[in-house]
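Sequence only, no structure available. Ideas?
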Amino acid sequence: MPDMYDGKKLADFISASIDGVAAEVLNNKAWLANVKARFANEVPFAWQSAEDQGPRPYMEDRSVVLPYLDIECGLELPRRLSYFAVFDGHGGTAVAEYVASHVHVNFVRSNHFPNNIRAAISEAFTKTNEAVFKFLERRDLPLNVGSTGLICVLYGTEVTIKLVFFFFKRQKKKFFF
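Reply:
I predicted one. Tokens follow.
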């Protein structure tokens, strides 16, 4: 490990580490062949993710970037499936963390998936909403918290974007999209 106060040495160390990981991935011929074969006829795209904490003392938001959700879930689909989401926590991180780790799972488990992406997303929101309320109750967490979320799903060249609001109040849970 280089001297942390020597910027040039630290930058060289980080660059060499990144180069090593990239070389390892690029030398994995089987993985590269699989990716090239799966996506040979699709439009390439790039993505980027950034966060801004704002004035709060901690980050309440959660983002999910899964450009190869189909491969990560072991799905054999005719087109690439990508999933991107941002969940804005309200009153803490509990709901944003929960929905960030569950919506995409419920999405690919939906009975509508992959034939009706919009309906599969709606079903995923509904199932996640029911589960997160129980999650908060089991852990005796405040029930006056929530999250908003924006999800973008790319299935081949089809783009679906949905906005969702998860709000929980002590009397009744509310959910709409």
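Confidence is low (pLDDT under 50) at residues 169-174.
Hope that gets you unstuck.
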